[in-house]
Each structure stands twice: as structure tokens, then as C-alpha cells.
Amino acid sequence: MKKAVMPLIMVVLLAFVPYVAVQFAGLGFLFGVIIPYVAIVVFIGGFIYRVVDWARSPVPFRIPTTCGQEKSLDWIKPNRLESPSNFWEATGRVLSEVLFFRSLFRNTKAELHNGPKLAYGSSKWLWLAGLAFHWSMLVVVLRHYRFFIAKVPGFVQLLEDVDGFLDITLPALYVTDVILLAAVTFLVIRRFQDVKVRLISLPADYFPLFMILAIALVGVLMRYIVKVDVMSVKDLMVNLVHFNLALPEGIGALFYVHLFLVCVLAMYFPFSKLMHMGGIFMSPTRNLANNSREKRHVNPWNPDSKFRTYAEYEDEFREKMKKANLPVEKK
Amino acid sequence: MPKFAPKQSELKKEFEEKPSLLKGDYPDKELFDTPVEFRDGNWCYPAKPEIVEDIGFANPRKWSPTDEDWKLPDGWEKTIKDGMKDRLERFRSFKLFLDICVRCGACADKCHFFLGTGDPKNMPVARAELIRSVYRNDFPLAEKILKGFSGARKLTPEVIKEWHMYFHQCTECRRCSVFCPFGIDTAEITMMGRELLHLIGVNNNWILEPVSNCNRTGNHLGIEPHTFVQNIESLAEDIEDLTGVTVNPTFNRKGAEILFITPSGDVFAEPGVYTMMGYMMLFEHIGLDYTISTYASEGGNFGFFTSNEMAKKLNAKMYHEAERLGVKWLLGGECGHMWRVVHQYMDTMNGPADFLEQPVSPLTGTTFTNAASTKMVHIVEFTADLIRHGKLKLDPKRNDHLRTTFHDSCNIARGMGMLEEPRYVLNNVCNTFHEMPENTIREQTFCCGSGSGINTEEYMDIRLRGGFPRANAVRHVKEKHDVDSLVTICAIDRATLPALMNYWNPGVSVYGLHELVGNALVMEGENKRTEDMREDPMAGFQDEVEDED
Ligand code: HEM
Ligand code: SF4
Ligand code: SF4
């Protein structure tokens, strides 16, 4: 529990800062214009820096984790996704991880019974919640595109229509909002419930979850309950996109809370585990073809090594070798 | 009962009664607050100073993990930190895996050491945190500002003790990597951890002595050429006694078509020797033009358990010898880590082997396109191809006295992907084969518990715990199908599983796949066979006529 308190307090404080600053100190320009710019620069710059930094370290050995039959004899059916034998199959493997969390789908839960006896049960909740969380977050983010561009593009409209098909509230309830909140809540609870995960969890693991939860909650609050002036919000965002530094009047302070938390998360992103988003594409156990006997993989720093040559070996053992009738190079 | 084995009743009691994370009990201490404790059975003897010196590793000295002071060299902190920095720059895997773990816990209960010990630090994610925590502290980003936020800690002698303990309670089996959504392979972290430990002389004699031997004599056991030859010849005599067929292995013969290399354990230790006999009978049966080298007389590579440079150095002999002898290609015996190295490292480290030819089976004409560059074929691929083309005369009834199951070795399954070939061969040489439960085979296979150079006697306590998930799966088929034979294609398995079976599943014996091939092989001019290679009676062959199919 202790480990969750510090991040919780941090998120609450972070939420209060813009509220107070805008409502009572009139710092709308700072929180509406300057910080968003800083955040976007840090996010993009940091993201690129991290990816380039990883890319600078070479991949000396070809180490895919093979999770299926390799391509070998032609009458044995290879598993093209789990033991890819070329670039395209390996790409398919990475995509299956990125889009469907394929490896997580394998998840099992081990149980120790009396006997002693181990049993492995299927355990797909993390996969389901993880997938629901990420996909709904993606849809939510894409839907936000409408705030950044004067004319709402067709795909965003479509997304909104489909997402809001339930049409049970005013404005229409987005299914993804519900899924996102439910999934994040599940992930938080899971961190407490599963003792193994609780033990390995760090404040740095709770922080992004709480941040996302807070951002989503404030968003939901603004949309369905404490309405903010959406047109002004859109004006502000379109302005920012066009480097027009004017701050529209009358946006509710709650919006600044939402925006500021997003900015903090964006700035935090490149320096945290959230970089798994970039890393998953670069993981050498997943993105390499299992063809290292077929094609030579080159290690750019392949060290020179002085091994014991046959000649040295024979020099030491020549007499014994001769006695054993072994052929020798030097008589 | 081996000296360092826990009493079975006590271990059972511990499994059943002691609270553990695995069973859902939260420990009273946080991860890094539990001190490490070295006691009988959970540490390997450190390397002898003369051996450390011989192979040019750091800090040769007399010491023991149970000592308070490990006599680390002056400035060891800097050595570790520089070593870490250097490896972060050379291995993307290391850097990436330290950076992107989200601590989702999917890997947590996948490690056989966690399942067998219940020790929180044996969760793969926790094992990685052992290094990650230091990495965060010394490559500071946010941690300096927010103490404790992302679990950073200082590098202290206690941390080194922890590394030593837990990087030897990881057999580099990669099972965790199968389940991690990002493919994070804790085996990579362990390899780096061990490389770092070697920089300051924290080591294990059971690994370094074979390395030194292998360097000098060509094989881990330190067998000199004449003894090596003698041993194989005595196996040839055993074959002759058993079958009446003379096999004539040749040694260091120039101009042979194929150089055959297998782990030296197959030549010297039971039950590996029966597998060796199986190979020789097979080669005789098909008239293979092959030779065995006394110089490149080791398929395995304990160097791989110390550092990539040492792995390269020991592995170099294979191509060096192949070139000297002028063979066309290489054939490799049954072994796990040997094949991890051959499949994923050899060509990169010591290739390109332009002086060899693309392997073609001289009997079936099959071109092994999957080995086009490395030019080394796995014996099981080779045999599967022979069987498929009807080149072997086999009588699977000759293995009717065995009820088998198959243990996928970690490296073959997860570092190579050879899953079907051994099953195909096994199904052709025996009639009763039962798979263990699906979460314990193929890519999800459990380690024998003693891989990566920890198969030493004084480590028995940990080995028996680490091997528990494997043993438990065997017990399942033993109870359900009366399985009594555990078939493997790995020399370390053959060396370690017998002890594991004796402890957990008495009555189950361990076999190499090619031992069963040898049993089933109907050779030209052979005597009537009534006994298998171990001189155990075959079932139903006392007055049976040869069966042709
Ligand atoms: C290519 C894009 C991404 C992929 C493939 C991906 C994949 C994953 C996977 C497989 C997990 C582990 C399972 C789980 O807990 O759901 C995970 C966890 C997580 N991801 Fe992502 N992710 C991506 C982008 C993002 C982004 C953009 C964010 C946030 C801004 C994010 C936030 C998180 C968080 C907070 C967790 C931890 C969940 C927990 O604590 O239980 N991810 N991600
Ligand atoms: S499964 Fe992968 S990401 Fe999840 S805790 Fe384990 S190593 Fe970290
Ligand atoms: S590689 Fe194997 S032994 Fe090592 S942490 Fe992963 S599962 Fe455990």
C-alpha cells in the first residue's frame, strides 16, 4: 500500500496545481499555452532520443525466442509467426504482439497443491484488460483529434458515431470511456490483489495508472457532468496547432486540470516504463527471424579471440597421440 | 540420498505448509529487504585460483560465498559500473530489457526456480530488478529527484552477493521470455550479470574448471586424446558384444565427409554413453563417412555460461578443426546449450565457414537449406530425414519394454525451435510415447533445473527444487500412463535428470533419443537381440522372430 500512496498524492497535487493557478492566480496562459508546448517538445524529443539511444546499441546476436517449430525439413510444418524464418514473418510476429498482445494471451497461473502438485490454469484476464485498456485509450486519443482541426475528418466522425452507438446519455455515452475506466480500475486492483505483482510494483508503476485514471475521470466529468465550453477548448487547440498564441476566454478551470495532467504524462513518458510503446518494436527476441543457421548474422563488435589452435594442442599431446595411433601433423 | 539434498519429507512439508508468495501470502519484507543467506546446498564452490588464472579471468583467490568478506578487488564498484556501461552500449537486448519492463508480472510464476523455491527474488521480473535497481541509480534520470520512486539502490557488497545467488538460480532457460508481452528475456540479464560478476572474480568452479579443461584438452572433462579414443573404442566393443556388428569410428581423419561433434558427456558418463553407442550404430548402419576429433571433442560450451568472449573462444575449435580436416560439413549430437550456441551464435562469432559446403545428406540427398550458412546439422534433423526417406530399418517393438515421455530441452525448444523432429523420431522407434501436460512441453517446457553450469553436487538443494516443476510433470504421466522412461536430447539433461527422477519419481530412467534409435535399429549381420543397450531385457524378444515392416 505504501508504495501506492506517494504516487496517489503526487497525482492529486498535480491536479490541484492548475486548478488553483488558473482559478485564483490567472495563470491560464502558462497552463494553456506554454506548458503544452513544452510538453510536446519534451515528449517528441524525449521519445526520439530514447529510440535513437536504443538503436545506437547494436544487436550482436540473433536471439529470437522460438515459440514454435522452426523452418527445417520441408515436410515439417513451420510455425511462421512464432518461429519466423524471414523478415516478413518476423514483422507479422511483432504486429501480433503490438496489436493483440499475443504472448500475454499465453498467460497461465501456477498453483501449488498438496502432494506437492503443480497445476497451470488459464489466466487471460490481464490480457483482456490490457487489450481493452490500450485499445480504448487509442480510440479515445483518436477521438480527440476533433479538437485540433477546424473541420472534423470523416474517420473521427465515424469513430465517434460507432463509439457512441448506445446513445443513452446526453451527450452520447462513449463505450470506450467506460471500458477505459473499467480496465484501468481492474489493472490498479490487480496490482494490489495479486501478491506477486504487489511485491514487484514500484511507485513508478502506480503513478501512470493513477495519472491515466485521473485524466480519464476529469475528462468524463467535463463531458457528462460539469460541462466546460467545448468551443473555446477547440479554439485554443486549433490556435496552438497554428502557433497562434491567443488564449480564448471562459474555459472552465477543470479543463486546465485535464490538460495539465496530460502534459505531465507526456513529459514523463519518455523517461519511464511507458517507453514500452517504442521498445516493443525493437525487442530482439521478437523482431528477428529465426534463421541464424541459414544466413549469417553480423556482430559489429565481434571481438578478436585467441583460441587454442590445433597446432598448440598437438604440440602438447603429440607423443600421446602417436601412441594412440592418432594421425599427427608434425611427426 | 545425495549429501546436499533436502530431506524429502521436510521439503514436502515446506511446500505444503510454509507460507509463500506462490500460494498467495504476502511476505513481511519488501523485495530488497530480505538478506541473502548462503547455506549448505545453495551455493557452488568458487573457482580454484589456479583455474581462474589459467583462463585469464579476474581476481584469483581463495574465498567462499559463506565468508563475510568476499575479497573483491579494489575499485570493484567502478569495474562493475564501467562493465555495465560497456554492455549497455554493446547489447541492445540488455539496455532495452532494463528499460521497458512494465512489471505486469506475467513472467512471475513461469520460472521453475520460483515454482520450486517460492523465493520472491526468483520471479524473473525480480531477478531483472536486481540489476535494474542499480542501473537506475547509476544512470540517473528521475530517481535522483524522487527517491524510491522507481526502486533504485546503491551498489554494495550485499548486492553482489544477491547477484551471485540469483544469477545462479537462473538456468538461462528463457521460459519467462515466452510469456513476456515484450519478449524480455531474463536469460539475457543473467548472462550480463554473470559477465559482470566475472569481472570482479565472483565465480563458480563447476563452470570454470570445464572451461579451462576445454581450452586445453578440447573437452570439458579434461580427457586427453588417447583416453578419449580408448573410451570410444570401448563403447565400440560394447556394441560388438551386444549386436555382433563391428563399428569402426575414426579419429582426426582428414578427408572424411562429415565431422561429428557431441558433448563429451556422451563419451564418458552414463547414461550418455548409450546415446553415443546409438550414434555409432546409426552411422555404421548407413555407412556414413564421418570422423570424430579429439581436439574439437566437446559439443557443449561452458564458456557460454561465463561470457560471450569465452563462448566464442571455445566454440572456435569446431570450424578450425573442420577446416584442418577438410570435411564438407558438421553434424552435431544431442545437446541443449551446445545447440543454442551453434544455432544462434556460432556463425556470428566464428563464421563465415566458407571452406565448408552446404550440408547434403549423403543418403537421402536432402539439402539442409536451414543450415546453409552455419553448415552444421543437428543429428535429430538428420535422423528424422533418414527415417522419412525409409533409409533405416527400425523395429520399434524393441523398445516395448519402455514407456516413454519426452522432455524438450530449453535451448532446443526456445533457442532453436526444433519441436517436431524429435517427436517424429521417437514415434518411429518406440510404440508407447505419452506427452506431458501441455503447459510443460514444447516452447513451455520446464528446465531440468540444473542447466547453465550449476549441475554440481554441492548445489543439489537448489537443483532439486528448480527441477521440481519438470519432475512434477513427469509424475503426472507416470501416474496416468505408467511412464517409466524420460527421453531427452540434451547431455546436461542426461547428467542431471537421473538424480532429479531418483528424488521425485523413483523408477523413472533417463534416455537419450539416439539410444532408443540404437535399440530399434535392425542392423545387417546382427545377432538376435534380446537386450537393450543397458542389458535390460527387451519385452517379447526371447523367442520372437524378426519382424519386417
Ligand atoms: C504500441 C503501443 C503499445 C503497446 C503495444 C503496449 C503494450 C502493453 C502491454 C502488452 C502491457 C502489459 C499488459 C498490461 O498491463 O496491459 C502494457 C502495459 C501498460 N501500458 Fe502499454 N502499450 C502501448 C502503448 C501505451 C501507451 C501509449 C500508454 C500510456 C500512455 C501505455 C500505458 C501502459 C501502462 C500504464 C501499462 C501498465 C498497466 C499496469 O500497470 O497493469 N501503453 N502495455
Ligand atoms: S512479463 Fe515482461 S514486462 Fe511483465 S513483468 Fe515480466 S519482464 Fe516485465
Ligand atoms: S530464464 Fe528461466 S531460469 Fe532464468 S528467470 Fe527466466 S524462467 Fe527463470
Keyphrases for this structure?
heterodimer; A: 331 residues; mainly alpha; Fumarate Reductase Cytochrome B subunit; two-stranded antiparallel sheet; B: 549 residues; Glutathione S-transferase Yfyf (Class Pi), Chain A, domain 2; Rossmann fold; 3 domains; four-stranded parallel beta sheet; three-stranded parallel beta sheet; 22 helices; globular; binds protoporphyrin IX containing FE; binds iron/sulfur cluster
CATH superfamily of chain A: Transmembrane di-heme cytochromes, Chain C
CATH topology grouping of chain A? Fumarate Reductase Cytochrome B subunit
Q: Roughly what is the average pLDDT of chain A, rounded to an integer?
A: 94
Mean pLDDT of chain B: 94
The general outline of chain A is elongated
* Broad shape of chain B: globular
Please sum up the structure shown.
The complex is a heterodimer of chains A (331) and B (549). By secondary structure, chain A is mostly helical.
What report would you give on this structure?
The complex is a heterodimer of chains A (331) and B (549). In chain A, a hairpin with a 3-residue loop joins strand 1 and strand 2. In chain A, helix 1 (2-25) packs across helix 9 (203-225), helix 1 crosses helix 11 and helix 2 (28-56) packs parallel to helix 11 (253-268). Chain A has 331 residues and is mostly helical. Chain A has one domain: Transmembrane di-heme cytochromes, Chain C (Fumarate Reductase Cytochrome B subunit). In chain A, strands 1-2 form a two-stranded antiparallel sheet. Helix content of chain A is 60%, strand content 4%. Chain B has 549 residues and is mainly α. The model of chain B has no long low-confidence stretch (mean pLDDT 94). Chain B folds into 3 domains: 26-203, no CATH class; 218-388, Glutathione S-transferase Yfyf (Class Pi), Chain A, domain 2 (Up-down Bundle), CATH 1.20.1050; 396-548, Rossmann fold. The chains are: A mainly alpha (331), B mainly alpha (549). At the A-B interface, helix 2, strand 1, strand 2, helix 8 and helix 9 of A face helix 1, helix 3, helix 4, helix 6 and helix 8 of B. Residues 110-111, 113, 124, 127, 170-176, 186-187, 190 of chain B line the site of one iron/sulfur cluster.
